[in-house]
Amino acid sequence: MTNTALIVVDIQNDYFSGGKWELNATDAAVDNAARVIGAARERGDLVIHIRHETLAPNAPFFVPGSDGAQLHEKVRNVGDELVIVKHFMNPYRETELLEVLEHNEIERVTVVGNMSHMCIDAVTRASDDFGFEATVIHDACTTHDLEFNDVKVPAHLVHAAFMAALKFGYAEVLSTDEYVA
């Protein structure tokens, strides 16, 4: 095993067509994430899957036990790859993620998944805070349109803004092609 872990964040059925919270360009992002996972497995990197379950009553999506809360078929864990269930945006919060990384002597993390402006941002910044060298694969992540003060922000601009911020101070930001090369 290498000293790098791939953290696959919230690539779950509810984010796809027919799900409860469809994101922008999820099919392209999941295909890229699958390529990244394949490359990480070939390299011998530790692959950790994060799956969100919403515990709030009348949860809008990621309802425990639902098909929507399950990992998407293109990126499911194989063999002994760990799946960590989280209930907060930051997958370090109240989970064993940090302990697993430290136990495996991980120094670097690579991040793919959903949503760019929420859990991808949270895990990347927290990884940096915990002393891990972080890389985000930007085209293996996605999000949705946002609105603030009556300003509608298209998903591709939300994504670009968050990738720019992460690149500025928290992580190396690469494309899938750059990562697998």
Task: Kindly describe this structure.
This protein is an alpha/beta fold and 181 residues long. It has a single domain (4-180), classed as Isochorismatase-like (Rossmann fold). It has helices spanning 26-43, 97-103, 116-129, 155-169, 176-180, and strands spanning 4-9, 46-52, 82-86, 108-114, 133-142, 146-148, 151-153, 172-174. The protein has a 6-stranded parallel sheet with strand order 3-2-1-4-5-8. It has a two-stranded antiparallel sheet with strand order 6-7. Helix 3 links the parallel strand 4 and strand 5. The chain is globular, with a radius of gyration of 15 Å. The two termini are 19 Å apart.
Which descriptors apply to this entry?
alpha/beta, Rossmann fold, six-stranded parallel sheet, two-stranded antiparallel ribbon, 5 helices, 33% helix
Q: First CA to last CA: what distance?
A: 19 Å
Beta-strand fraction estimate:
15-25%
The number of distinct helices, counting runs of at least 4 residues, comes to 5
Report the uncertain regions. Answer: none
**CATH fold label:** Rossmann fold
CATH superfamily: Isochorismatase-like
What radius of gyration results from the CA coordinates?
15 Å
Biggest sheet, open or closed, and with what strands and sense?
Answer: 6 strands, parallel
CATH 2nd-level architecture: 3-Layer(aba) Sandwich
User: For the residues shown, what is the average pLDDT?
Assistant: 97
Instruction: Count all strands and give the number.
Output: 8
Structural class: alpha/beta
Summed up, the domain count is 1
Order of helices and strands: EHEEHEHEEEHEH
Quick description:
With 181 residues, the protein is an alpha/beta fold. The protein contains 5 helices and 8 strands, in the order βαββαβαβββαβα.
